[in-house]
Structure prediction request, 255 residues.
Amino acid sequence: MSDLSADGALIAANIEAVKQRMAAACARVGRAPESVTLLPVTKTVPAERLRAAYAAGLRQCGENKVQEAREKSEALADLDLSWSIIGHLQTNKAKYVARFADAFQALDSLKLAEALERRLEIEGRTLDVFIQVNTSGEESKFGLEPSAAAGFARALAPFERLKVRGLMTLAIFSAEEAAVRACFRRLRAVQTAIREAAPGARVDELSMGMSGDFAWAIEEGATLVRVGQAIFGPRPLPDDHYWPGLGSKREKETP
Ligand SMILES: *Cc1c(COP(=O)(O)O)cnc(C)c1O
Prediction:
């Protein structure tokens, strides 16, 4: 076996191990294992590793930065991979997302919604979107205030090419379980509030939980977890490269 195919097999084994832990978390709270989807987060993972992982069964990639996602999607255009952009997006990059992404999980402004809608129209495509909510109160994080989410969901109704699927959040960067769970509960409360205030809005999905906290997120109601390092190994760049202003506050270990 070549090194790359051995690596692909290791990635597939890691995905299986994460799925087992997801199923265990579901079982603890009486949920069906099919009620949670795993989105493998592939940021910083080079295209050739993804090709090997594809051979071992990978079909979805979550990427934080659109430029990196775009380059890899072009390098891997011959594969049947779907791409989710899970990080903050500048309005002037909406056109790239409209071109190749299947989902965008960090929608938090009408200006961006308008730019995406316009570009999707040109491309003749639609896009699954998640409204990002700031549940941690940390200034450095993107996302809407919880109290603004219902109004925002209502305002998205006329955008025909944006298919609202649910809500997304990043929990506080803390090793304290109670503080992390409080963020996940807040997202669920926002979902309830939107269902009451904007009955037409479809917000069934709760995208919350990453390598360090996905089991807690599932226990709190996550329907989609975004997991990178527990599948692909530690990243060379610190987290504040992806979430500017974070510093090195994150103390949680990848379990
Ligand atoms: C990187 C990233 C993740 C995954 O983090 P891991 O610690 O690698 O599991 C999840 N969500 C977002 C928005 C990310 O940028």
